[in-house]
Amino acid sequence: MEVKNSAQAGTFESSDILVMIEPVDKGSGITIDLSSSVYMHYADSIKTTITRVLNSFEIKDVKIIAKDKGALDAIIEARVETALKRALGIQQGTL
Amino acid sequence: MLYIPGNNPAMLLQGGVYGADGLLLDLEDAVALNQKDAARILVRNLIKTNNFYGCEVTVRLNHLDTPFGMADLEEIVPLQPDAIRYPKTESVEDLKRLISIVEEIEKKHNIENPKMTIHAMIETAMGVQNVFEIAAYSKRVDCITIGGQDLTADMNVVKTKEGRELDFARNRIVMAAKANKIDVIDTVYADVDDDEGLRQETEMIKGLGYSGKAVINPRQIGVIHDVYNPTEEEIRKAVRIIKEFKKNKEAGIGVFAIDGKMIDAPVVARAQYVLEVADIEL
Known about the structure:
By secondary structure, chain A is of the alpha+beta class. Chain A has two helices and four strands. In chain B, helix 9 runs parallel beside helix 10.
């Protein structure tokens, strides 16, 4: 799927992650710009989790800006999925 | 039962540590209208991965008349939490519609023996009027609850600390639950700084027969448990009654006396209930 709009999900609160999605040119690939309160220990793991969700939506080209405050995998996945669905215009049951 | 806002990861993760018997993961009033999708996905993921420290997990959904209710059901029903709480249940028709959609989703996901029950939330004057039929409608409805804030708004009155405006509704709802042998949970006490007011209200609703109370702040849990937990004296008395009852039963005696007071079936049943609450098996 192709990301055509910017969108975001999550907050700066503790245990959460703010995920912002930006469209990029086709063929640019995936870029993840991550800042995290636990960057030293978990940066790779967080990026892997984000990438796993992108792959499940078959996203090839996108820029992700993520500000993490110690979110667990299930929370990272939820925020990336929400932001992606918003960017793709396929979110349901919200205003 | 402790309400947890559905879009707050920290509170969802920590909600189980405060000693509540159950958690109410809220997708309804505690979530902003433009965050309904985020909360729904977050709650779904955490039900899949989090054990909530052994608390019973209930999800409060949005009503099916809103743009959010159907999407809530589609995400939550396949996970089979302990229960779903349906707001503003006003009639049997509301439940009929809800249960038919729930069963359709369960069928689609090959859930053959669904464990998830339904809590019907009574928070309109019409719901209060129809509560007997609502409580009796389906075996899946194992609890009814009163929503004081919305009910007083529907009645166009102010919710006071004394709560007289809720007297009729509380009495009618508890009797509907008892008549159908299901649980009944009272509304929240909104002033989290007033422990004494909370204690008085909890004593009052316990006296009416309510099974428990919803809370919005973990600080309120201790007060409610203080009121509901049997005292040492009550437990000792219950143990004595049940021991004597068993002994007399073996001898074929149904009614007996302890310290000059008659002990019959209702007294034994009450003693058994005390032991059940105290988690004591004899």
